[in-house]
């Protein structure tokens, strides 16, 4: 095989690897629920999204165990989940949720008796309303199968600018496509592109002075795709404001 042929095959395999997470088959896990009947207890969380109603995530949300959370990089990923192998408690159909929180381990309890989120278990702690679309409330915990799916979001990505001068903390929400942001760059109208570092959840940090400049953002998700939102924030932006950008 000639050199060009090798390059083409490598490129094809790379492309397959990128999309492998979406619709690539089902994996086994378990699911519980938390947050109350109105899901008020799911607000906030380790991804930093705050009010999930206001951010557009609603009650179709999940807290992920350590094995799935990936130290916060899985925040924003979407999963299709269905209850399986339990005719007593399972309901037909499937649900789609966005990862918005972390389900911490409880090492004081065994993995099969309360330590549901202990490593290496793959576990989803769902909001109660969405759990009840998949299984009966009295079940408590059910076996499930899950797979990554593309996130379908309405409107553009949102950039909420917090912090202060020389500490720009940008929360990125409402991300479509793969949903989970793995890198972000920011550009002021007087600067070039500068890589941001992930502070926690989906809060991304820049220590440069960008006051009084229009801000552009380049967002890359786990499938390798990138979207640039040029001048998403005008030059008169202020801390605490949210701006819309382009969408995947």
Overview of the molecule:
- The protein has 248 residues and is mainly beta.
- The protein contains three helices and 15 strands.
- It has a six-stranded mixed β-barrel with strand order 1-5-2-4-3-6. A five-stranded antiparallel sheet has the order 11-12-8-7-15, with no helix packed on it.
- The longest helix is centred in the first third of the chain and has 17 residues.
- The radius of gyration is 20 Å and the shape is elongated.
- The relative contact order is 0.18.
Main attributes?
248 residues, six-stranded mixed barrel, five-stranded antiparallel beta sheet, 15 strands
What order do the helices and strands come in, and which of them pair?
Elements: H1 3-19, E1 27-34, E2 61-64, H2 66-69, E3 78-83, E4 95-102, E5 123-127, H3 128-131, E6 142-149, E7 158-164, E8 167-173, E9 181-188, E10 193-195, E11 197-200, E12 203-206, E13 215-221, E14 226-233, E15 242-244
Parallel strand pairs: 1-5, 2-4
Antiparallel strand pairs: 1-6, 2-5, 3-4, 3-6, 7-8, 7-15, 8-12, 9-10, 9-13, 11-12, 13-14
Short structural summary:
The protein has 248 residues and is mainly beta. The protein has helices at 3-19, 66-69, 128-131; strands at 27-34, 61-64, 78-83, 95-102, 123-127, 142-149, 158-164, 167-173, 181-188, 193-195, 197-200, 203-206, 215-221, 226-233, 242-244. The model is unreliable at 1-20 (pLDDT under 50).
Overall morphology: elongated
Report strand %.
35-45%
Low-confidence stretches: 1-20
Helix % is 10-25%
Mean of pLDDT: 92
Radius of gyration: 20 Å
What would you call the structural class?
Answer: mainly beta
Task: Specify the biggest β-sheet.
Answer: 6 strands, mixed, barrel
What does the oligomeric state look like here? single chain
Order of helices and strands: HEEHEEEHEEEEEEEEEE
- Tally the beta strands: 15
The spatial strand order of the largest sheet comes to 1-5-2-4-3-6
First-residue to last-residue Cα separation? 37 Å
Number of separate helices = 3
